[in-house]
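Q: What would this chain look like folded?
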Amino acid sequence: MAMIVSGKMIDPEIIEWFTGYILRQEEPFTACEMEEKAIHNGVARAVAHRFVDRMFQKLRKAGEIRFVGGYWSVVEGA
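A: My prediction, written as structure tokens:
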């Protein structure tokens, strides 16, 4: 499934890889760290912040990640 962020289309392969990458994290992480990883993996710098924000919203609503104490972390058993 493709995602359009701020008028830019994000490749479905990037979305799938990035979702898997987030869910493989064993240590808490920040949005800034994930923005840098997204930029490094082909997401335009101009939309990286919004892309990560939307990914985190979707994963949080699905109960797969949570925000605690300034860091995001993967929910155990997700």
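The radius of gyration is 12 Å.
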